[in-house]
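Fill in residues.
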């Protein structure tokens, strides 16, 4: 996706009060993260802390706004939503890409679309969350914490060692390589697979490339680090989960749709794998009554991978820069980088 710039750049007219909606600001940090008051007088900035899944309700909320700042993929913008927003002239999405926004619909409507990048720590933080989930699973941190708060001791907790075990990395990109370093520091063997991984790229980080089937069969822990697209949706299905050891764990900090939801829930309920660590989900925010919340062999975090203070601040500061550039008719930051 690339930013669309209309042939006639937008110019702020006298009495043209721009209305800006900042979406899915769960922690309510957007307003203090950037100097929104530096925008032209009369500009209105409104932050919303909730996510609206219903398309009609979303349209009703956003119809008055000229500019939308979208936080990653929290709110979906299919063509029918974009077409129902008559005042919309610019969408700024945090992050490098956002498949939840219909870029073709934006181009057809001559709505500018651009990205606001975060801090470098946003990348390492996701890997840190993944490793935290792995440690929480094998060291039984949630169970031990619960027992201690209840006055117990070691009665119900026996942990495992990572040294000598095998980590399977599904996707050896930037985040996958962080995980490799952590695993090697803990004395683990590491194997990897991704659709385009070569022996040479794997060897660069001292990792053995294996087939997808071998990765799930051999690993004691499988960690997912693939982008979500049509080719990777459901890439971890019933067959892959069935190939895992009963003692193995599955960790996902990338995107929920990489895993077949019902296949994972069934395997966890039936104890066909030891457990899972999940930071991302099929529907976000995760519904309060979702089945995964009730399983005792799952460690859950609320998509914390990129939720780092300096990363959020950089998102909003770069969003503001793009809005100022748009008002001035200057170039915007392209999507997809």
């Amino acid at each position: 996706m690339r930013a669309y710039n209309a042939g006639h750049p937008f110019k702020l007219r006298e009495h043209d009060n721009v209305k800006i909606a900042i979406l899915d600001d769960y922690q309510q940090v957007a307003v203090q993260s950037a100097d929104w008051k530096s925008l032209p007088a009369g500009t209105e900035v409104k932050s919303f802390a909730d996510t609206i899944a219903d398309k009609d309700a979303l349209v009703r909320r956003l119809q008055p706004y000229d500019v939308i700042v979208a936080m990653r993929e929290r709110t979906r913008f299919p063509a029918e939503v974009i077409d129902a927003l008559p005042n919309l002239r610019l969408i700024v999405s945090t992050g490098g890409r956002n498949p939840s926004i219909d870029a073709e619909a934006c181009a057809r409507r001559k709505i500018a679309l651009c990205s606001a990048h975060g801090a470098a720590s946003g990348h390492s933080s996701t890997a840190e969350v993944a490793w935290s989930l792995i440690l929480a699973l094998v060291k039984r941190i949630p169970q031990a914490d619960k027992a201690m708060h209840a006055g117990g001791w070691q009665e119900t907790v026996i942990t495992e060692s990572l040294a000598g075990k095998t980590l399977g990395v599904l996707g050896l990109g930037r985040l996958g390589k962080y995980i490799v370093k952590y695993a090697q520091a803990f004395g683990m063997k590491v194997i990897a697979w991704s659709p385009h991984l070569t022996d040479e790229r794997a060897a660069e980080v001292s990792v053995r490339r294996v087939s997808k089937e071998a990765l799930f069969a051999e690993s004691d822990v499988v960690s997912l680090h693939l982008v979500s697209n049509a080719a990777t949706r459901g890439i971890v299905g019933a067959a892959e989960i069935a190939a895992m050891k009963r003692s193995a764990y599955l960790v996902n900090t990338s995107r929920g749709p990489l895993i077949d939801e019902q296949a994972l829930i069934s395997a966890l309920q039936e104890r066909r794998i030891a457990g899972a660590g999940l930071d991302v989900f099929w529907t976000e925010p995760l519904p309060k009554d979702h089945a995964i919340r009730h399983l005792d062999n799952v460690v859950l975090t609320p998509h914390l991978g990129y939720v780092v203070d300096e990363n959020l601040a950089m998102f909003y500061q770069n969003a503001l820069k793009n809005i100022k550039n748009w008002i001035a008719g200057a170039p915007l930051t392209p999507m997809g980088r």
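The chain has two domains: 19-119+308-328, 121-300.
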